[in-house]
Design brief:
The termini are close together. The protein has one domain. Helices cover 39% and strands 13% of the residues. This is D-aminoacyl-tRNA deacylase.
Amino acid sequence: SQFTLYGVLKGNKPDFHVAMPPQKAETFYASLVDRFRRSYSPDCVK
């Protein structure tokens, strides 16, 4: 899926140390997808 991650460039590699922890991010992403399904069309949001 296409989703922008929070990161900063550190040299040639992205650094994700200030990003949300994986468990919180998974819950956040699931609620975001649910919100998209409710406001758009459940069949169009996978």
